[in-house]
């Protein structure tokens, strides 16, 4: 296949001018003229946001600032990188050793320096061919229409192109997992493994076992993978999840420590280690991990002021108040005039000055807390709201504390981990069981509403059931169970009474809301599948055109 | 050397290799440009480019062997069309082929697939191919075919063939390698190591060398399960 590159738009990201020029000259010999350049990660992201590129050639090492992997990660998360773009990371090392850091964001290709024009051309051909072939599938994944993506995937698998079979099976397996179709996923992974022991297929079986809560089997699978493929980082992440699910947080911490030793630059994994060690009261490891997170955060899209406040809280827990205050100062340096960061600092300072016996400064900080929290209003992350509640209790403002606490409990009642965080916070201010009554009451309320709703629904009174749940949702707008049940009823209505525009819109908006409040992927996935089936009946042929 | 000093040294060695590879990249590129600006192929530049290419291959081998030695090595196995790998090897070596005026033939059945590590297998073949060019007179042949439970990748040339002392040793045994004079030996040892890391059930990858080339010179074969 002769590839016409003259119409392609290319971005070169490389900090070293000589190398940039060399690559540009090389592209010239391939008759590529439409070339943009960026000399660092920030400028690269500006260029990517501005123009749709067919190819991005990005050096891994970009000097100070973001590295190539972080550019890719941020571009994907900010959704400024079209799925049609071929993203190539150039590195001076043999792939993929140095880029183990973010397995979640794999580039389309790694190219090792030095490379010549023909090599680049060969890789581009390979990738354009692949992207073109997978276009219908990837387009639907990009749009979030997993049902249609599955349809296209199955259609392509039927064409039986040997060259594309494995990549298709891999995508098909992931899609099945994402929509919660564990049976189909299992079939695919067994089919692949019968042919060859491939780590991603074995991992898939482990994930299925984890989701079916066959925890011993899942743990054995992930451990086996680590043993045979010690640099396959995904298996460490999944093993730590399995240990968490099995209530073995110490083992989870141990595995994350191993993973972080092998691949020290993945900020998300460091965050997980920090939180797990913190939860295990393993102060030294938690401290080290939080510090690393803060350091790695400097150029990462996953940077957050909560990383600083978590470290400060850890110091406060060990009564190292001075170090805690110092950490908050560091945070202010990093986040100048950021109200959320200011509020985090002030809430903790209230407590820290109390620890140090300085009531005056503590009161001053609390005054700041009041102003800032009014300014931020409802736009506060739940962990920050919890900090705020604590500060209120410590300053004898029980009314405000209870008010916030009530909405936190109502909205997050199905988040057991967060309910535990609330309990921990309460006991740290000497109010054990203070919120327990409210938690239990809210739980009961939720169960009652659901039972009532289900019972109405079973009697065929889906309209009444919906009204009831809507009223409950007004009181607990972020409650997952309620929204999920509303979506179920809406789908059922669609199925039994047939689609109308109004019903389609309602179901669609409820599914969207479920996603927004963080309902588990597999639960929404199944419903999305059903929604597509009901609204598309059969995907028409014109969908197939790329 | 005490253990930690030794480790420290090998890390320094590895990072130096990276550094050299960076410089080599620029060097190769400059050589390429200067050579292209000349009217005809200057044998001095041909030599420069060839040597730069060889150095790069040696550095890559060194890095891979360093990683194997430090348990930092991982094969990234997936299924690939062998044609893609042959295209990659050919592209890698293309500038030299042109300069040396060597005729290359490539033969690979459509849809012949292999489970392997794309990067390492391409580089391993590139190493051997680079040598074949050095010893061939005018022709090199690259081919792939199915061989029972294995796929076989073959590189043949029309040179004088492997010397007897190389044919008589086991390339997987580094004790037998002649490290001082045997630059070809190191390449074979490296490729044999990479091959042996490819496993499927009880089958393991391996290499064979002989002088049964259809072109009359050396024949190298890489078998992958």
From TrEMBL, chain A:
Residues 9-128 form the Response regulatory domain. The keyword Phosphoprotein applies. It comes from the Bacteria. One of its GO terms (biological process) is phosphorelay signal transduction system. Transmembrane segments: none annotated. Keywords: Phosphoprotein. The modification 4-aspartylphosphate is found at residue 59. InterPro entries: CheY-like_superfamily, Sig_transdc_resp-reg_receiver, ST_Response_Regulator, TPR-like_helical_dom_sf. PANTHER family: TWO-COMPONENT RESPONSE REGULATOR, TWO-COMPONENT RESPONSE REGULATOR ARR22. This is Response regulator.
TrEMBL record, chain B:
Residues 15-225 form the Histidine kinase domain. It catalyses: ATP + protein L-histidine = ADP + protein N-phospho-L-histidine. Transmembrane segments: none annotated. One of its GO terms (molecular function) is phosphorelay sensor kinase activity. InterPro entries: HATPase_C_sf, HATPase_dom, His_kinase_dom, Sig_transdc_His_kin-like_C. Keywords: Kinase, Phosphoprotein, Transferase. Its EC number is 2.7.13.3. SUPFAM superfamilies: ATPase domain of HSP90 chaperone/DNA topoisomerase II/histidine kinase. PANTHER family: HYBRID SIGNAL TRANSDUCTION HISTIDINE KINASE C (PTHR43547:SF2), TWO-COMPONENT HISTIDINE KINASE (PTHR43547). This is histidine kinase.
């Amino acid at each position: 296949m002769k590839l016409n590159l003259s119409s392609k738009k290319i971005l070169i990201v490389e900090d070293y001018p000589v190398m940039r020029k060399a690559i540009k000259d090389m592209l010239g010999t391939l008759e590529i003229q439409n070339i943009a350049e960026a000399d660092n990660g920030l400028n690269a992201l500006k260029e990517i946001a501005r123009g749709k590129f067919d190819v991005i050639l990005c050096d891994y090492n970009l000097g100070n600032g973001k590295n190539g992997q972080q550019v890719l990660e941020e571009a994907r998360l900010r959704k400024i990188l079209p799925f049609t773009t071929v993203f190539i990371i150039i590195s001076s090392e043999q792939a993929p050793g140095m880029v183990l850091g973010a397995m979640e964001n794999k580039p389309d290709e790694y190219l090792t320096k030095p490379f010549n024009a023909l090599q680049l051309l060969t890789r581009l051909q390979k990738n354009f061919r692949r992207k073109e072939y997978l276009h219908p599938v990837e387009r639907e994944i990009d749009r979030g229409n997993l049902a249609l993506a599955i349809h296209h995937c199955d259609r392509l698998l039927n064409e039986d192109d040997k060259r594309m079979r494995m990549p298709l099976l891999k995508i098909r397996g992931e899609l099945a997992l994402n929509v919660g179709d564990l049976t189909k996923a299992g079939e695919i992974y067994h089919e692949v493994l019968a042919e060859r022991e491939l780590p991603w297929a074995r991992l898939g079986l482990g994930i299925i076992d984890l989701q079916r809560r066959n925890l011993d089997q899942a743990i054995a699978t992930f451990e086996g993978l680590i043993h045979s493929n010690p640099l396959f980082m995904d298996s460490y992440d999944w093993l730590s999840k399995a240990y968490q699910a099995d209530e073995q947080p110490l083992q989870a911490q141990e595995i994350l420590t191993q993973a972080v030793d092998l691949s020290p630059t993945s900020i998300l994994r460091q965050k997980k280690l920090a939180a797990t060690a913190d939860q295990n009261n393993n102060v030294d490891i938690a401290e080290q991990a939080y510090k690393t997170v803060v350091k790695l955060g400097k150029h990462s899209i996953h940077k957050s002021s909560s990383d600083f406040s978590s470290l400060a809280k850890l110091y406060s827990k060990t009564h190292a108040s001075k170090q805690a205050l110092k950490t908050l100062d560091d945070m202010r340096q990093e986040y100048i005039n950021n109200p959320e960061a200011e509020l985090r600092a002030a809430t903790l300072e209230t407590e820290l000055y109390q620890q140090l016996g300085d009531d005056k400064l503590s009161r001053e900080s609390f005054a700041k807390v009041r102003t800032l929290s009014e300014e931020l209003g409802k736009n506060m992350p739940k962990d920050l709201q919890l900090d705020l509640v604590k500060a209120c209790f410590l300053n004898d403002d029980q009314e405000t504390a209870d008010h916030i606490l009530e909405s936190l409990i109502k909205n997050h009642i199905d988040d057991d981990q967060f309910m535990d965080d609330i309990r921990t916070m309460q006991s740290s201010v000497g109010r054990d069981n203070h919120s327990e009554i409210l938690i239990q009451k809210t739980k009961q309320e939720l169960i009652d509403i659901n039972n009532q709703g289900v019972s109405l629904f079973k009697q065929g009174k889906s309209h009444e059931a919906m009204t009831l749940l809507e009223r409950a949702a007004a009181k607990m707008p972020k409650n997952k169970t309620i929204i999920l049940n509303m979506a179920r009823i809406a789908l059922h209505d669609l199925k039994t009474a047939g689609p109308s525009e109004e019903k389609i819109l309602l179901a669609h908006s409820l599914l969207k809301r479920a996603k927004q409040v963080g309902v588990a992927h597999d639960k929404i996935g199944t419903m999305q599948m059903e929604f597509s089936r009901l609204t598309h009946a059969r995907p028409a042929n014109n969908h197939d055109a790329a | 050397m005490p253990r930690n000093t030794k480790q420290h040294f090998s890390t320094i060695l590895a990072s130096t290799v990276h550094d050299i590879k960076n410089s080599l990249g620029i060097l190769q590129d400059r050589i390429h440009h200067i050579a292209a600006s000349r009217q005809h192929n200057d044998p001095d530049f041909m030599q420069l480019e060839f040597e730069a290419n060889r150095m790069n291959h040696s550095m890559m081998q060194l890095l891979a062997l360093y990683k194997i030695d430090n348990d930092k090595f991982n094969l990234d196995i997936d299924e690939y069309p062998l044609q893609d790998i042959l295209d990659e090897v050919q592209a890698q070596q293309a500038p030299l082929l042109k300069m040396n005026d060597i005729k290359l033939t490539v033969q690979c059945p459509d849809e012949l697939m292999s489970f392997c590590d794309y990067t390492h297998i391409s580089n391993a073949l590139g190493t051997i191919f680079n040598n074949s060019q050095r010893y061939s007179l005018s022709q090199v042949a690259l081919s792939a075919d199915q061989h029972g439970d294995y796929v076989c990748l073959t590189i043949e040339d029309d040179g004088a063939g492997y010397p007897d002392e190389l044919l008589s040793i086991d390339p997987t045994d580094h004790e037998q390698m002649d490290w001082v004079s045997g630059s070809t030996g190191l390449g074979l040892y490296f490729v044999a190591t990479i091959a042996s890391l490819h496993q499927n059930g009880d089958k393991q990858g391996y290499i064979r060398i002989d002088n049964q080339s259809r072109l009359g010179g050396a024949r190298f074969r890489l078998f992958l399960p």
